[in-house]
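Lab notebook: predicted structure, single chain.

Context: the supervisor wants predicted structures on file for every construct in the current expression panel, including those that have not yet been purified. This is the next one on the list. No modifications to the sequence; it matches the entry in the shared construct table.
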Amino acid sequence: MNNVSNINEASNSVKSMPLIAHSGTPVITTDMLADVYGTEVINIQVNHSRNKNRFIEGKHFYKLTGSILKEFKNWLTKSKLVYKGSEIISKHAKSIILWTERGAARHAKMLDTDNAWDVFEALEDFYFAKKEDAQQKISLRQSTAKELTPLRQTAERLIATGVANIYPDIWKYVHKEFGVEHINELLPEQIPQAISFLDALEGEYLPKQEALPVPKLEIDYPLTWYPDNFPFVDMCFYKNGQLKVTQSMLTETKSPSKEILSKLESAGYDVTAAKAEIESLRHTMIEMSWALGQIASFAKMKDVVNKTFTA
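Prediction complete. Output recorded below exactly as produced.
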């Protein structure tokens, strides 16, 4: 008898819930799911975090951010939807998770309480079953989310550059221009027109900045660099891209390679690997030069000693 009472209570609770839709599908927020399941929001979040491999975005949940979230908030406001007298989503939320029927079932399984299963059964019968109502909750979708991506990216770029200071709700102007209540209603062929419309807003109120010419890097180092900087270099031995230069020249601070890397670094390029390589080669060369000098000195000393004893 008590179980029947619980089921009836769960059914009544679910029946009073406002129907929320996303992409024509009934969905439920984390807060609402926790409330009807009789648990804390943190439990839903932790179960999701610990079992991420069991939740697939687009199948078990939707994560809304950016302009998509803003559109969704506007739809909630326009639809005047509330849950137990409070707004369904905080105006300050930067992202939200919306659970599908399959996602809600996953959470019922993880909570594994009689109450959670009773509530899920009620959700299944009286909430997620309202797919036709959910379709009517949003405007008829003419374009897919993928087709709308360039339009959303354009809007986000304009908002980031300051257009939002002039147009607090940039989508409202798109809706008015094309006579739709949601950008989902735009036909695929209207999307480029909508992008051009937004570009026109940018050009009217925030003149587009012409692309600045890329500064030319003065990194020309012809072969004549060596005689210009080392007058005594023997250029007669230039062959196959090589020069006959002394060890001291190769270990000098002045170097075309080092100068090129310094100019690239000043232009903002990360050349630390190339600099490290050159410094390592120079260090190795200095050590080898010292070692060869030591060997030569030892050989000379040995020769002197041999001559002394054989004389």
